[in-house]
Amino acid sequence: MSLRRILVAVTVVVGFLASVLASQHTRATTATRFAVVPYASRPYASHNTPVTTTWFCAGVPAADDTVGGQIVIANPTDVAINGHITYMSSDPAVSAVVQTLVAPPRDKLTLDVKASISGPFIAAFVEIEGGEGMVEQRATTPAGDAVTSCVTQTSPTWYFADGWTAKNSTEQLILSNPYDDKATVDIAFFTKNGVKRTPSAFQGYSVDPQSVKVIDVGSSQLQDEQIIGIQVAATHGRLLTGRAQNYDGDGRVGFSLDLGVPSPSEQLWFVDGEKGDDVVEQYVLFNPTDEDAEATATVLGIPPTEGFVPPDPITVPSGNVVTFDTKNIVGLPDGPHSMVFASADAKSSLVIERVLSRTVNGVPVTSVVPSMTAEYAFATRWYLPIGVDAADDQAIVVYNPFASAATISVKAVGPGGEVAVPGMEAIELPGAGIKTIALNDPSVFGKIVVVDVTAGVYVERRLPRGHDLEGLSVSWALPECGPCSFSSPPSS
Amino acid sequence: MDFNSELVPSVVAVVVVHQPGEGFGEVLDALAAQDYGNLRTLFLVAGEAGDIPDTIRATLPDAFVRAVAGNPGFGAAANEVLHLVEGDNGFFMLMHDDVALEPGAVRLLVEELYRSNAGMVGPKLVLWNRPGILQHVGLGVDRFGEVDPLVEPGEADQEQHDAVRDVFALPSACILARADLFRTLGGFDASTPFYGEDVDLCWRAHLSGARVVVVPAAKARHQERLTSRRNDLPHHTLAARHRVRSVATLTGGLRLPLVLVQMLLLCILEMVVGLFTGRLGEAFASLRATLGLIPRVGSIIRRRREVSPLREVPYREVAGLQIRGSARLASYLRTREQHHMAVDHSAIGARRFSRNTAGQIAAWLAVMILALIGSRTFLIDGVPRIGEFVRFPSSTRVLIGDYWSGWWGHGLGRTIAAPTGIGLLGIIGIASAGHMALLHTLAVLVWLPIGYYGAWRLMSIFPSSRARIVGLVAFAAVPLPYNALAAGRWGVVVAYGALPWVVHLMRKIARIEPALTARSDTDVPDAYADATVRQLVRWSAQLVLLTGLVTAFVPSFAGIVAIVGLALAVATLLARSSAWTALTLVVSGVGAGALGLLINLPWFTSLFGANGWDTFVGAPTATSNSFSLSHTLRFAVGPDKLGVLAIALWLPVIAAPLLANGWRLTWAARASVLAVAALALAVLGQRDALPFRLPEAGILLAPAAVGLAIAAACAAAAFEQDVQGGSFGWKQPLGILCGAALVLGAIPSTAATANGRWSTPTNEMPQASDQLAANPTEGDSRSLYIGDARVMPVDGWRLDDAGLTGVSYSIVDDGDLDIHERWAGLPSGAESDVRDVLALMSSNSTARIGRLLAPYSIRFIIVPLLDGVTSTTSHPLPPPKGLVETLTAQLDLFRWYTPSNYIVFENKAWIPTRAALSAAAAQASNEAGSTALASDDISGSAPALVGMSDRGPASGVVPAGVLYSAVPFDSRWHLSVDGAGVAPRVAFGSTLAFDVPVAGQATLSYSTAVGRRVAVIVQLLAWLALLGAASTVRLGWLRRRRRLTDLDEGPVLRLGTLEPGSGSMFDPFARAAQPDGDEEQSDDAEPGVPMAVPVEERIEERVEEPVVVPAEEPDPLDVFDDVYGPGPFGPGPFEPTGPPARGDNAPDDAQNVDDPS
Fold first, then answer.
1. What is the C-alpha to C-alpha distance for residues A2 and A14, in angstroms, rounded to an integer?
2. Side-chain half-sphere of B964: how many Cα atoms within 13 Å?
3. What average pLDDT does range B593-603 have in this prediction?
4. Does A17 touch chain B (CB under 8 A)?
5. What letter would DSSP give residue B722?
6. Phi, psi angle pair for B756, to nearest 5°
7. What is the distance in angstroms between the Cα of A234 and the nearest Cα belonging to chain B?
8. Given this model, what pLDDT does residue A357 score?
9. Contacts of residue B930 in chain A, CB cutoff 8 Å?
């Protein structure tokens, strides 16, 4: 074989081998990605200085003089915040109203919703320049007030675990569509024994642009039910879904107004649990997924107790709602505790709400809160934008999910900026410990309250029901979530 | 017959000599052996003389030898006899240097000339080495100038053609012409150096009434080796051009229009036939020559005027001498009936289709029919709008206007050079008479036959027709273009069609030719042909033009050409061929790539900048590892049916270097290296294994297609010449295996033709632009396409640098998408601002993205989902993660229309492209910044100047207030309201607005910079210059007219009768009229003195004085009459008083004449 032929043949073979070798090179498969899916499992504040921040509020009842509500825009910064608020009414005849607003620095701007628009229910969304402000709503009803944080993102899906129409209790779904495009939703109700009801009236149910629709759950052949899981899934558009519950019998009394959660989660946290003779603490577990789920309930924040037996894993079949009562936990001591529910595997996820009824003067005052998810465990700064207006001995409940101790500093935002509340500059919080903090100092009344912690914590707040009613309303404080890692799956 | 040699008329044998071959000695001997008593010889030596004069004088001591500058061709050189020989009384024997006359030939010719009263006579020509085989017995010519050789190839001389007869033409190899006639005719047409000079001369002789007669009794052997001796000539081109020129200048005026039309139709028919016979080059040359008459109208008219005095007989008589019908067709039909003949049957001026065309016809028929079958839906219904097959605008005026303007309307528009492709399409559109839809279809499909023919031309490196056929079939069998058609990858199809030509031209520039010997060239790595500088320049210009043309549409092609040159050079070195050849190849490749880009200036400069590389290699796409080596090997850039079989086509890449020897091994090396290099690059590119991105796999694989074809042809040639007939071994099975692989590998491509649309999606996906009205009453607007780069219907800008992956965006005007969207270029400042807005949306920084996009007049945001190719209903690609959700979460976007293949959001806050701003928008236009924009409701503006083209101008009534134009601020935009100018200002931080003080009639216009105009003109001139250099068309007035022999050299001979015993020119009429006494002749430069010094020295002497022939010189015919009796002319010089009697002379007359022998 001539040298020419050898050279050529070798080159060709080398070329083929090089191609084969190169073909073994595995490049990182990169899925096309435009954005982190706008997904917020729970309301949070972010100070990432976006161009504008839009806060969507669930809506408040405003049918008559006995009910109403406010939108509170908290501005912790030292410059005024400009923005717009758009009120939307559930009255189809009433168009949305847009107003400009200026939130004064280091202060709150409280807007009465009924002053601008009328309707049985009024929802609003607030657009503010930048990302520093925070928005909450307060619903006022004869059965008590309810404070709910507004949320910065809408979702095409919403879930509620605890439905209650027993006796004279009422439950209303508030569907608000802040967009110029209509939203179309399918609503499903899950009752005991996994019965799924999909009333035809709520399939392809349309919510007009910039409007609110209210659905009375009890009137949808679901009266006198104690188990109602709800799923709202938009086939077109996005929306915001809240739930107004007015309890009146069968062990529950009071008013609760909550946002739904946009998706089931794998790990769900609660801080302000309590076991006692006058307390009924239930966790309602709803599995809207197609897979059966198994969750492990873990009691947190209790001292080592002899005889305590961790509860068995709870199985929640697909489409079922299961109630877990802490009184069934063997050896659980009386007093406060926190809870976390974790799915046994990544596939199963749940929607869980805590229903806690404290009997005060013979009246079981009920509060309902959804869970907080795992990513907020890293929030080291929590806000109480509405704050407190009077002394409260159990205003804040903090749980440290980490093993190491942390230090809490409670501050109020006033004309001088953030100022630590006297005596609350450095409150020790042991690892895996619970701390209940009183806000009795007059310097915090009417102010934006900030809970600064040296490590990530969960914070719930207790609020008076108002109207001189006994008992408390409970809701989550608003976490600042710059460092949060939103690892939850997209909601669609 | 004995005759008095002192009385016979003078015959000067004029032999044009140029690098004579081995037979030259026999030519000289034959001349020396002539028995004609008054024969003198004049040798005109063209080119390097060497020892030719000595050789001549050794045989013909009395011969005159003169040097001719350069090598002007036979006709032009022979015309020198008009200057070098004085007198009209005698004959010129015009001869090639490869014609050996039989001893009595001259005498017989002279005798018959007198007997037939002819103007020109010629001998019977037989093959040089086989005198028993006829070569020519005169030539028949049809009205189109086509030559019918009258004898069949290989026809034995059995005296069947031995009758004296009139013919239309005589081969210039040997013509005996009356000197006065030759002088009257002006000799050969000086514009016809080779091919056709004989037909032209004889045609003019006929016009003047002279007879042209073949004298078979006179015989000569002729080598006829012009094709091999002058392989530098474009033989087909020259023959066609000269033929057409003769027809145009010599045909009668009344007949000419009809003849030209017929000739054009014949050319078209010939093109069709040529397509199937593989002689497309000849057909194309013919067509080109015919069309080339248009620019030559001036010279044609001038020559007709020159010829006009010669027209002594009615043209119908001349036409009557021409053969009826088409000589070409008759020849073709005759040839088709013949069996293979092993003789060289080529004839001067006679173009025949190959005698062995069955395989070629079958191959071309198969390839073309399959291509037509596969393209039938495209041809009937038009090319579907998938991928890069975007429509062309309905008007070429738009394209040319866009190119001429300094405003490029793509995206948001800006002052920048428009892509060269826009201008080219505009010009081509003019040629298509505005049939843009047809042009669109052709622009997509024409690259298949162009590629096939390029491969066919390239395969001419193999002298075996079998190898050429294999090469053609292998190239056509590569499924790359069909998969590319299915995927809408126009760039790939273009690269496939152009690359065979690139390699072909590189080969020509490197002057590589096949070694024609079959087995004695075992160790010859390459054979080379001579090429003139002009040819090299022409081929180089053609290569640059081709590269520039394709680069205008596929920018990465320039780089591909460079890579091809490099690969060929490396292979050349590996095959141990000449380093100079390798250098030539690499320089031609790199140079063509560079110049190809250069002629795309000024557009090319607009591609420099950040992400400029993207404009060359195309937008990046999110990729997976699914495109494996197997996909690459089977060219699976689209849906490939039975694609795995195509891998078999790679076998020759390995086998050819093992089978081939000699120069074929060199080509095998080139083919294999080219293919493997392309394969490796494609794999590397797909795997992102290089630090930089490469063009899409299809474009990278186009050189591989060429390599595969060459390898297959090489294997066939090697099998034929190196393997077949040898002792049995592994090579025979391997060669057979290659054949089987070719058959197997062709199956996928054949299967792809089945559905008639190259497997493009059955139903054309509706495009979003179809749903969006152009110029709606609510105002002009733009659409923002954003999505996965793989399914974007238009070229976009990447968003990767904004922290995203695989997402592109593009901005288009309302209305249909068209070819304008093909050149995204680099985003302008304003277009980058849009990217920033999208980045804000990506980071969830606002829910008012519509307001931020409103100043750019973006009304619709379109997310493509399915393109029917990459993303299909059955295998959809998901939209970029978070995109639809983010868009849905915007407060001012409305999900407008949602078919399955895209999602359209309407921006409620949009501002028309030209609008009278609302009060809020007018106020906001004075601000800049995202926060300010997002906070204000700027909707409600009123449209203005609806329907204005991107570059204006437009007029209309505008109200007082702010007239807004959603283009980047540019001071070249002018607004006049009722004749008063309004100064532009910046709006929304980057766009354009005019504060109109009062309502009125407004005109908005753009003023193109002078520099842009100059740049366009310079570019146009550059392209024209390249076209001129690349073309074989030469303007007659550019040609330098000059004497070929030395200017001051006078006649060296005078026609007359030789005086016995005298070394000087004998004047046969001296007895009647002595020369003038003042005609002194130099002793050492006396005319008639045989050359005794080298040619060069003779040229320097230039001392000959012309000998003036007295006007009253007696006619030599009188003298000749004494010998042969009175001739038909009667007394006096040749002065045809009327048409000579035709048809009543040759055979009969010949019978009445004693045979001089």
1. 18
2. 33
3. 91
4. no
5. I
6. 75, 5
7. 12
8. 94
9. 51
Peptide bond into A262 cis (omega under 30): no
Distances B483 to B639, B649, B752 between C-alpha atoms, Å:
6, 16, 8
ipTM: 0.89
CA B695 to chain centre: 28
- Best mean pLDDT range from A53-57, B347-351, B929-933: A53-57
Which 3-state string (H, E, C) describes B875-910? CCCCCCECHHHHHHCCCCEEEEECCCCEEEEEECCC
Strand ranges for B693-831 from DSSP E: 782-788, 797-798, 807-813
Enumerate the residues of chain B whose CB falls inside 8 A of the CB of residue A48. 843, 845
Do you know the residue count of chain B? 1157
Give the mean model confidence (pLDDT) for residues B311-316. 87
Q: At B655, which amino acid appears?
A: A
Which tokens belong to B765?
């996906």
Residues of chain A in contact with residue B806, where contact means CB-CB under 8 angstroms, are 30-33
How many Å apart are CA A157 and CA A186, to the nearest integer? 10
Cβ-based neighbour number of residue B995 at 10 Å: 17
Q: Quote the CA–CA distance of A336 and A460 in Å, as a whole number.
A: 13
User: B449 pLDDT exceeds 90?
Assistant: yes
Of A15, A30, A26, A31, the C-alpha closest to B689 is A26
* A82–B contact, CB cutoff 8 A: yes
Going B133 to B135 to B138 to B140, the CA torsion angle's sign is positive
Q: Helix or strand or coil: residue B192? A: coil
**Residue among B571, B665, B846 whose CB faces A5 most closely:** B665
State the Cα–Cα distance between residues B811 and B991, nearest whole angstrom: 15
* Residue A71 to residue B807: CA distance in whole angstroms: 39
3 state DSSP class of A316: strand
Give the pLDDT confidence score for residue B1080 in this predicted structure: 36
Per residue in A370-382, pLDDT tens? 999 988 888 999 9
Residue B195 near residue B238 (C-beta atoms within 8 A): yes
- Note whether B622 contacts A22, CB cutoff 8 Å: no
Q: Measure the CA–CA gap between A419 and A441, rounded to whole angstroms.
A: 12
Does B843 contact A at CB distance below 8 Å?
A: yes
Residue A316, C-beta contacts closer than 8 angstroms, at least 6 positions apart? A285, A286, A287, A292, A293, A294, A295, A322, A350
Cα–Cα distance for residue pair A433/B401, rounded to 1 Å: 77
Inspect the interface and report whether the beta carbons of A32 and B879 lie closer than 8 Å.
yes
| Contact status of B881 with chain A (Cβ, < 8 Å) | yes
pLDDT at B581 (0 to 100)? 94
CB distance B804–A31 less than 8 Å?
no
Residue among B676, B790, B844, B881 with most chain A CBs within 10 A, to mutate: B844
Average pLDDT along chain B: 80
DSSP B447: H
Mean pLDDT of B207-222: 92
Of A16, A35, A180, the CB nearest to B892: A180
pLDDT at B1037: 46
Place of tokens 């004298």: B215
pLDDT value at residue A104: 95
Q: Is the pLDDT of residue B342 over 70?
A: no
Contacts of residue B660, defined as CB under 8 A and 6 or more positions apart, other chains included, come to B667, B668, B714, B715, B717, B718, B722
Residue B323: per-residue pLDDT: 83
For residue A79, the model assigns a pLDDT of 93
Ranges A475-489, B17-31, B493-507, B516-530: which has the least confidence: B516-530
In this prediction, residue B796 carries a pLDDT of 82
User: Which of A8, A44, A53 has the most B C-beta neighbours within 10 Å, making it the best mutation to test the interface with B?
Assistant: A8
- With a cut of 90, say whether residue B604 has pLDDT above it: no
**pLDDT confidence of residue B1034:** 58
